[in-house]
Amino acid sequence: MDTRTDNWSGTAVRPVGLIIRQKDPNNLEMPFDQLGDFITPSELFYIRSHFPTPEMNPVAYRLSIRGAVLNKLSLSYADIRAMPSRTCVATLECAGNSRVFLVPPVPGAQWELGAVGNAEWTGVPLSVLLESAGLADDVCDLVLEGADRGVPKEEPKPPGPISYARSIPRARAMEPDVLIAYQMNGQDLTPDHGYPLRAIVPGHYGMASVKWLTDIIAATQPFQGYWQTSDYGYWDDSEGTPVRRPLAEMKLKSQIARPRVYERLEPDRPYTISAPPGRATPMSPKSGLALTEARRGLRANSSTR
């Protein structure tokens, strides 16, 4: 049975809380039938955590940029906030969204459809920081490391505690829409969403948008960390040889918010499916063609980079 938190949203279809999928650490899902706007209210945005939320002191906080760089940087929260900023809208989706529907079942948080959301993010382009640090010519990956730390609960387990870390390719890191963000939907980040700073990597699954960011490491070899290979990876075939590759860019997907999962509609009644502004598709439960056409333009969290 779903268990819900006490969050309240005046912009939702009805006031509702997040669904608890896991406790310790918090993994909370937006009830997807509450989707009402292109921007997901912050209080309804899903929360994905690998370890307990770390306590962060914004005064003592430092963001380190190191590795294969010409100038190591140690930037305070105030330093970042004083830099020219950029705002962009980006979709984040957990790579395990819709896991509950897999057959046979697989371990992990049993998300239905709500581990996804759109938000407006404000911060400093990562490329600006990397240009200040000066990347060595042979840098291929930028490793993003967070303050959250612990031992993963699921196999295969590393021998001891590790920090959460993911990498993105150099070329992607230098694109202007990749942000070191400090605001979400016009407000400072909350602790559950990565305060004081987090990465935002539009178009990549949410695990690339590392929360509680403390270190950016320029690497000259492909990153082989736990969250890059053991978890959030998949097996590929390379000329007959199995190769482990990291999950990266999101696959295009559309989801139906209403009717809800397992909801049954009354027959012989007209219904309207919301579409992008200016378009709507009338349908009835008997009209499979209309539903198919509506799916192509359904107003839901669909994402491409």
Unreliable segments (pLDDT under 50, ≥5 consecutive)? 1-15, 278-305
Q: Count the beta strands.
A: 16
Order of helices and strands: EEEEHEEHEEHEEEEHEEEEH
Can you identify the CATH superfamily of the largest domain? Oxidoreductase, molybdopterin-binding domain
Residue share in β-strands: 25-35%
How many helices does DSSP assign? 5
Globular, elongated, flat, extended or rod-shaped: what is the shape? globular
Structural class, from helix and strand content? Answer: mainly beta
What is the radius of gyration computed over CA atoms, rounded to a whole number of angstroms?
21 Å
Number of domains: 2
CATH topology of the largest domain: Sulfite Oxidase, Chain A, domain 2
How would you describe what is shown here?
With 305 residues, the protein is mainly beta. It has two domains: 54-101 and 116-246, Alpha-Beta Complex (Sulfite Oxidase, Chain A, domain 2); 257-305, no CATH class. It has five helices and 16 strands. The chain has helices at residues 77-82, 126-133, 170-173, 226-229, 288-297, and strands spanning 19-22, 27-29, 62-67, 73-76, 86-93, 116-125, 141-150, 162-169, 179-184, 187-188, 198-200, 213-219, 233-238, 241-246, 271-274, 280-283. Strands 4-3-12-7-8 form a five-stranded mixed beta sheet. Strands 5, 6, 9, 10 and 11 form a five-stranded antiparallel beta sheet that branches. It is globular, with a radius of gyration of 21 Å.
